[in-house]
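Quick question, first post here. What does this chain look like in 3D?
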Amino acid sequence: MKTYEYKGFGNAGHTCKGLVEALNPKEAREKLIADGILAERISETGRKLVLKLSSRAIMYRELGSLLAGGFSMVRALDILITSPDMSESSIIIAGVRDRVREGGSLADALSAASKSVSSFESAIIQAAERSATVDVMLERLASFLEEQEKLRERVTSALLYPSIVLTLGICVAMVMLGVLIPRAREIITGNNLPMPFLTNFMIAFGSAVVRWGWVFVALVFAGVCLFRRKLNADIDFHQLWDRRLFYFPIIGKGRTILANLRFSKTMAMLLRGGVSLIEALMLSGRATGSIWVSKLAETAAESIRHGGNLSDSIRKIPPLSSSLPGWLRVGEASGNIDRLLDSASNRFQSQWDRYISTWMALLEPLLILLVGGFVLLVTLSVLLPIISLTQAVGK
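> Answer (accepted):
Ran it through. Tokens below.
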């Protein structure tokens, strides 16, 4: 039995769409005809669609609650499909249900159904299935995603005002470069006066933007596409680039804090859920979202399998080697690694919040200064010819 998405016309001639379960498209069409619906299009729900972060958080929380209430996975997904909160995601959930019903795991079904599901989420769900703690893990995953959504909203709100200022500044600059400066040049040239250097420079800059701007945009777009294709096709290049990102100014620090936060939070949940230390270490490495850290975590897991201890193995992973090994050493000594990892994740969460708040506070005035400086240059390039003309007339 598969789920098909349809679009067609009802008895009254109005358009309608929805989902229908059938063995094949022919049976699906027959079922719809029996219900008085003439199907215009029928397709399987196997396409990879986008599922927003907020929608994923709601889905995980509701699914975890249903599983905790004693429902089977397939039955819980059936209920989610008809849930009002998940109406926009029903097609994706139907595809997940079909794959689970055919014997697939929830983690694989979600990854196959939506390209929005991150490696972090897949690692958490995969570990939850192995430790039979899916309901608990889904609740915690939903809470983590909700925190990320709040953070994203904070960043968006902080960037709103600078974005408006930047847009207005660009519009003003375009008007000045395209209308006022050429007009000022005509006045100066008509009176046989020397053109100020700044005005000449801004005229040349405006002409270059008009003539070559689209070429620059096209080259940047092509470069980004080629770069992303290279990342997807070449694992070694992807790993090398991922490693370099940790050492970039500003970005590297934030990426390091986020990797520590995800690693410690994931590993604490996995260990508390009964996952073995070696498996928890590998899955936590995947959960960081870094292919380089994931590879190093696999090496660290091998070291532990051959008798090494956790803190020394983590120390060999550069992004995680600053303070996390100290927390782990205390956890190993006390026998409460998961509790110490929770404390560490709270510490990293505070560092992440401070990092975001600091740079958002700096970004707003920085953008305003850049836009203001550019508008000032354009304004001066217009005023200088007028001042020169006024002085020439006064003489």
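The chain has a mean pLDDT of 80.
Residues 55 and 86 are 7 Å apart (CA to CA).
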